[in-house]
């Protein structure tokens, strides 16, 4: 059996690896070389025969597990180089499977379909698995605003904090945020987007999350900023929201919806938007035919998650009878973001180990590097879907997003009620003073913004 597993692994790697030079050292010291054998190899050492067997049968799951538990090591700990090599070749060999892996993949796909039935209680558990980790962990590698999503790099040399500020400004401009607008933030995280829209753009924001840890931190930030009269944060599932909003924003949450719920999600977006409202959905997506969630990521990092293709999301938008007014693809931006996160994480590994343990450090190291290399060499990118109920909710051209010399775009009607959320079916609406704005004359840009950079 040991030799059978070894031969199976060698056949699989030999089929996959056509570019680059990989050397695999087996538990007994035998050496297998793969690829074009040009230059210096990346050397991987397997330390027990059980790992060889698991890698042969289910490599997508076993690779991360083996690195995490130390049964697979890389000379020089060159995890970036190793995963870049694997992902480049995997993309070129897309669809190639050894015959004995096909039944495993079919059964895994069926189980994954069941796992993505993210009813409300399961969704809360999935969120808690990742986002209710210690806030001290996230402070060790995120920016000062705790933006746990892709930054927007106008230049690759920008700092992480600059890129995250650019992202929030870019989203605010796409949403054409004006003072007094009612904004729903689905998946508000630690409150950074809500605070920016309220403080810098004068919006009134209702933020919802399923993470108790995030909610407590975000509420403290809101109180510290003196924005409690403009920002209402709640533990609430998007399916429990009542009322209508002028704008809806959702950053880094759509990946947790699950394919089975896309239709429901966008129907709710439509129902919650005012007649001339605009929504922006910021999500990771495949630039390739649909693929399932990597089993290691699904098991250890984001249970219940699913990364959509553009066509899967667009199909749900169409069925909800929404206008897709803009789709933007951010290609390498998440790779740059993840490298910043990894560099900060690596500098603080001793502190992470003190919070958890060395195994957790290796698991998160693998997670951050694998994601970065997927955005650099694999078929993933970040997409922003701008949708509306009305065909004329946004200007005819995209100049309003980029041209700072243009007058601010004329916004649509602003509602006169502020929805108040209560988890479950109960909800009330609390009147707020009507906002009277004169849109007949162009307004000078920046008059109502405390900081045009979005910080």
From TrEMBL:
<keyword id="KW-0443">Lipid metabolism</keyword>
<dbReference type="Pfam" id="PF25371">
    <property type="entry name" value="DUF7884"/>
</dbReference>
<keyword id="KW-0949">S-adenosyl-L-methionine</keyword>
<feature type="compositionally biased region" description="Polar residues">
    <location>
        <begin position="440"/>
        <end position="455"/>
    </location>
</feature>
<dbReference type="GO" id="GO:0008168">
    <property type="term" value="F:methyltransferase activity"/>
</dbReference>
<keyword id="KW-0489">Methyltransferase</keyword>
<feature type="domain" description="DUF7884">
    <location>
        <begin position="22"/>
        <end position="89"/>
    </location>
</feature>
<dbReference type="GO" id="GO:0008610">
    <property type="term" value="P:lipid biosynthetic process"/>
</dbReference>
<dbReference type="Pfam" id="PF02353">
    <property type="entry name" value="CMAS"/>
</dbReference>
<keyword id="KW-0808">Transferase</keyword>
<dbReference type="InterPro" id="IPR029063">
    <property type="entry name" value="SAM-dependent_MTases_sf"/>
</dbReference>
<feature type="active site">
    <location>
        <position position="371"/>
    </location>
</feature>
<protein>
    <submittedName>
        <fullName>Cyclopropane-fatty-acyl-phospholipid synthase</fullName>
    </submittedName>
</protein>
<feature type="region of interest" description="Disordered">
    <location>
        <begin position="403"/>
        <end position="455"/>
    </location>
</feature>
<dbReference type="InterPro" id="IPR050723">
    <property type="entry name" value="CFA/CMAS"/>
</dbReference>
<comment type="similarity">
    <text>Belongs to the CFA/CMAS family.</text>
</comment>
<dbReference type="InterPro" id="IPR057206">
    <property type="entry name" value="DUF7884"/>
</dbReference>
<dbReference type="InterPro" id="IPR003333">
    <property type="entry name" value="CMAS"/>
</dbReference>
<dbReference type="GO" id="GO:0032259">
    <property type="term" value="P:methylation"/>
</dbReference>
């Amino acid at each position: 059996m040991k030799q059978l597993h070894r031969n199976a692994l060698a056949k699989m790697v030999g089929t996959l690896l056509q570019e680059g030079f990989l050397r695999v050292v087996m538990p007994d010291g035998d050496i297998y070389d793969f690829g074009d054998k040009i230059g210096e190899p990346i050397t991987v050492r397997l330390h027990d025969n059980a790992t060889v067997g698991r890698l042969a049968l289910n490599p997508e799951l076993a690779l991360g597990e083996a690195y995490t538990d130390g049964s697979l090591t890389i000379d020089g700990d060159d995890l970036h180089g190793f995963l870049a090599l694997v992902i480049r070749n995997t993309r070129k060999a897309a669809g190639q499977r050894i015959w004995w892996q096909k039944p495993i993949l079919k059964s895994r796909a069926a189980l994954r379909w069941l796992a993505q039935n993210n009813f409300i209680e399961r969704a809360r558990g999935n969120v808690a698995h990742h986002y209710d980790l210690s806030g001290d962990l996230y402070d060790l590698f995120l920016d000062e605003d705790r933006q746990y999503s892709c930054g927007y790099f106008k230049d690759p040399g920008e700092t992480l904090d600059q890129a995250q500020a650019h992202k929030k400004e870019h989203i605010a401009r796409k949403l054409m945020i004006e003072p007094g607008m009612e904004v729903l933030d689905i998946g508000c995280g630690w409150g950074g987007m809500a605070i920016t829209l309220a403080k810098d753009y004068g919006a009134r924001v209702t933020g919802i999350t399923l993470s108790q840890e995030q909610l407590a931190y975000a509420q403290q930030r809101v109180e510290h900023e003196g924005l409690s009269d403009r920002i209402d944060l709640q533990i609430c599932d998007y399916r429990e929201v009542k009322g209508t909003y002028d704008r809806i924003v959702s950053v880094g949450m759509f990946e947790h919806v699950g394919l089975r719920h896309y239709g429901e999600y966008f129907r709710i977006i439509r129902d919650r938007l005012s007649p001339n409202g605009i929504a922006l959905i910021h999500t990771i997506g495949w630039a390739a035919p649909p693929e399932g969630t990597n089993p290691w990521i699904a098991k250890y990092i984001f249970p219940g998650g699913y990364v959509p293709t553009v066509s899967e999301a667009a199909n749900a938008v169409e069925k909800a009878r929404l206008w897709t007014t803009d789709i933007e693809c951010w290609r390498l931006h998440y790779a740059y973001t993840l490298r910043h996160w990894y560099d900060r994480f690596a500098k603080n590994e001793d502190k992470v180990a003190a919070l958890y343990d060395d195994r957790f450090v290796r698991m998160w190291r693998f997670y951050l590097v694998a994601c970065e290399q997927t955005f650099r060499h694999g078929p993933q990118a970040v997409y922003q879907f701008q949708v509306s109920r009305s065909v004329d909710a946004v200007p005819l051209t995209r100049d309003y997003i980029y041209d700072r010399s243009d007058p601010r775009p004329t916004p649509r009607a602003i509602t006169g009620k502020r929805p108040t959320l209560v988890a479950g079916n109960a909800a009330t609406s609390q009147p707020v003073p009507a906002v009277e704005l004169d849109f007949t004359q162009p307004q000078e840009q920046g008059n109502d913004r405390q900081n045009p950079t979005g910080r």
